[in-house]
What does this fold into?
Amino acid sequence: MSVTIALSKGRLLPGSEALFRRAGLPFPEDPGRRLVVSLDGLRYLFVKDQDVPTYVEHGVADCGVAGGDVLLEAGADVYEPFDLGFGRCRLVVARPASARPDPRSSSLRVATKYPRITAAHFLQRGVSVEVVRLSGSVELAPVLGLCDCIVDIVETGRTLEENGLAIVEEVAPSSARLIVNRASYHARRDVLAPLLSRLQGAA
Amino acid sequence: MMLSPHRLVQVPPGVQCFVGAEARRRRHIEETVVSVFEGWDYEEIIPPLFDYADVFGSPDLVARTYSFVGRDGSLLALRPDFTSLLAKIAAGRLAHRPAPMRLYYSGEVLRYEPPRAGAQSELFQMGLEHLGGAPTRADAEILAIAAECLDALGARGWVLAVGHVGVFHGLLAGVTLDPASMDRLRERVEAKDGSGVGAVLRETNAPAAVTEALQALGGLAGGRDVLEEAVRRFAAFPAAVAAVAELRAIVDALGEAGLGDRLAIDLGEVRGLDYYTGLVFRAYAKDLGFEVGGGGRYDTLLGRFGRPMPAVGFMLGLDRVAALLDRQQVAPPASVAPAETIAAEATGPALLEARRRRAAGARVRLDEQSQAESRRSRGDEEDGSARLPQERVSGPRSPESTR
It folds into this structure.
């Protein structure tokens, strides 16, 4: 009975690979363009960052590694038993460093890859925002006048700096999490529990 | 941009339409579950489709209820669940009935659901309520009935994950949290996210021992030994230990009844905290990523309707059961036997023959009119659509007959 694991092909892949190797689990040498790789009773799915919670929530994968940012945005109903300690970054609000706050502006236009988090963040402070959904190069949007500010993740802050943006506030910290499907956690405990404890030991 | 000009044939998001084998499978599931309920001497209640909105007071449901204003100005709601309606009926219509009452229902509920795994706006639920019975015994009874339903349906690899909300409350006894922190805490415990629990409680005045205990709560899941571990860990919290003891009594009873290996302990199960007061459980199976049903003890609900008494119940979602059986390739019920075709030129004699065979219990199908007769009545066209496949025989309410 194999266990299916959803991993992100993106920024969390190196950390995920290191974790699985530390835990002494087989990991595909070079998945290349293959999206599904089976190895000694483990089946790895390589999918987009944002899709990891979806695969796990639907039970297509028993467990997976997802960024805290992606999890927060997805609002997926999955178990998140432990923090993996890598892929640390911060979700922040940033705006052009040169822009002076406009006291008359009662509404903001915000560009982001995280529309749910952004809407919730500003709603909580009673600021009405227009969320502009982008899928990449968000830093460019305020420079070109598409929006007043952005909500995005930063690791070092260099990309922001290079685009003349400054951090206004932090929305949430983020790091890689191990996530587990709820039904698998209980109904496939016999095969899943040993795997989870090895990963936890290596995290 | 118009995605489809054919709005009249579109189905609104969140609702479904079933035909052929799917419809038969659903009917079969309902009949199977209902016969188990009847077998345990539960009595069917057929509640109304809508009622006054304040009947459905559960805070979790209010935001998801389809409500509307009645002609007399009262606020009404399409039923988002059955339990409130059964509680109302038990306290009103059935006020003269002595406890315990064993009641069941089977039908649709309606809720606004954002589209996500396993969520529909129109849900078909089959459930029962055990009202006014002795707690541990009634809890064990409904778990055994849930188990029998899943077996009778032919589901495989299923477990009932059981918890007790009193453990969570017992750990928090004496700590006051604002509602927002409480929500976030509950959600993090539910996600088994120990570090998230720590982050929520860091901003409150919760003592370190409470934080530590709540961080461990989600991970207390697995076999019966989890209960011993909880008792050791939570020794400083008598109310939590008492709740664990209640759960252990239920688990032990089921063990003696031969269902021990069907239970999974999950002390992190804390959904519906505003509603449940004791046992909580969910039925999970491999091959389906989400639960097929669940339930628990709700001792405060009937008090709202003026007849306070302990209560416990559970329900199975028909859509989810059907999805599970599909994934597990449990054979759907055999399609019905082919009908005996009755061919006769004239309608009257054909009907007479059909009635005779029906009286003898046969399944019959009136043959289409002969070609000659058909040409006379419709002009000259050949009409292939008149030959419907067997499973789509129009019933007495075909559009033609109701017009």
